[in-house]
Every structure is written in C-alpha cells, then in structure tokens.
Write a structure and sequence with these properties.
alpha+beta; endopeptidase fold (from Nostoc punctiforme); 5 helices; 20% strand; globular
C-alpha cells in the first residue's frame, strides 16, 4: 500500500452514503489521502483527522486505492504538509452545507468535502482531477475517473 496515495471508499449499507453517491453521481461516497501503510488523512463528521487505514478493511466497505502517476517525493511532501496543516475539528452543519453546494457549482464553501480537500491539496502541486471544476467541487467520481487509463478507441 505504500505507493498508493488515494483511497476511494464506498460504504455499502449506509443511507447517507447512498445519498452522497446519488447527489454526486459517483460510485464512491468517500475518499482519503494515504499517509503510509497504516494511516490515512480524511475529512470525517468530526473534522479533518488521521485514522487507521484498517477501519475500511471490512465487508461493510468497498475500496479502491491508486497512485497518482509521476508524483515526485517533493510533490508528495507538499501535499502531505498541506493536508496535515488542515487537521482540525469542523462544524458538522458547515460541512453539510458545503456538501449541498457541490452539485450547484458553488465553490464559496467554507469547509471542503472529502474529495474537495484531496483535490485542493493536489492542486498545490498542479495536479487537477477535473479541468472544468474548481478543486472544491471535485467529487469522488472525478478522482476515480482521473485514476483510469484513457480509453482511446
């Protein structure tokens, strides 16, 4: 897992997760940045926190992890530093309001969603998951599509 940078998560049996997937047109409802083989940095209901990666190693979740191609050690350090500086408790209502603004292309959110946080961090090193969206509006589906090889038929 050391080379993986992002983990996308689908909560299988959670109504809120289903609503998020429907709202964002995504196969995944959550994403996190992999710090190492054991820890992830994620946006949770309590705020931006560091968690054990093992919490998603259960039949309750489907996960997909991938490495951002050609990411240098300096870029990874910049992203890690940016994310680690974001760790804090967050107001749940503000997070919910931010989430509701995403489909309406309102990037004046005060609190990033999980995918918005990852996209904002990666934008610090000019990695964009979507060329037509502000990083705060990126969804887990945008990140998933970024990880897929181009299908040139």
């Amino acid at each position: 897992m050391t080379n993986s940078h992002i983990i996308l998560i689908k909560y299988k049996y959670d109504i809120i997760a289903l609503i998020i997937r429907l709202w964002t047109h995504s196969n995944f409802n959550h994403c996190a940045w992999i710090l190492n083989d054991y820890l992830i940095l994620e946006s949770s209901r309590k705020g931006i926190i560091i968690s054990s990666i093992n919490k998603y190693n259960s039949w309750l979740y489907e996960t997909y992890s991938f490495e951002i191609p050609n990411l240098t050690i300096e870029q990874k350090h910049t992203i890690n530093s940016y994310l680690l500086n974001q760790i804090k408790s967050l107001n749940y209502f503000k997070r919910l309001l931010s989430f509701l603004k995403v489909p309406f292309k309102k990037y004046n959110v005060t609190t990033p969603t999980c995918s918005g946080l990852i996209a904002l961090a990666c934008s610090q090193v000019q990695i964009l998951f979507s060329f037509n969206k502000h990083p705060l509006l990126v969804t887990p589906e945008d990140i998933y599509k970024f990880s897929q090889p181009l299908n040139l038929k």
